[in-house]
Amino acid sequence: MKNSVPVSKIMTKKLVTLTTKDDLVTAERLFKKHRIRHIPVVEGSSIVGMLSYTDLLRISFADAVDEHEEYVDTIVYNMFTIPQVMVNDVVSVASKTSIGDVARFLSKREFHALPVVDNGKLVGIVTTTDLINYLLECIEP
């Protein structure tokens, strides 16, 4: 396995994003529809925050609702905005950062996704799942 391979080889390039003007009901629907756990929050092509499904669980009973169900209880979600719930101090990596460096970084931190940013523009996202899938490709015949 080569850990010098750039993260651009495994990152998700087709991004699902939110803006600060979107609401949390929209966010939960996107999480469920796309079966994802992290959504970058953007202004134009720049990242301003990161929202995780765990962030929603902290303020709601979203986990009590079936993941595939479209209905969302909006009472709690109407009490908060995306900027109030998202992580503001986003750590990112460049697309040329090695997969090994990303793996080492994520293993030491408490989050499971990193936005990939080149020249101030969001170009992808890499998650621990991407890293595990890469590892599995390397070890499976």
TrEMBL record:
<feature type="domain" description="CBS">
    <location>
        <begin position="86"/>
        <end position="141"/>
    </location>
</feature>
<dbReference type="InterPro" id="IPR000644">
    <property type="entry name" value="CBS_dom"/>
</dbReference>
<dbReference type="InterPro" id="IPR051257">
    <property type="entry name" value="Diverse_CBS-Domain"/>
</dbReference>
<dbReference type="Pfam" id="PF00571">
    <property type="entry name" value="CBS"/>
</dbReference>
<dbReference type="InterPro" id="IPR046342">
    <property type="entry name" value="CBS_dom_sf"/>
</dbReference>
<protein>
    <submittedName>
        <fullName>CBS domain-containing protein</fullName>
    </submittedName>
</protein>
<feature type="domain" description="CBS">
    <location>
        <begin position="11"/>
        <end position="67"/>
    </location>
</feature>
<keyword id="KW-0129">CBS domain</keyword>
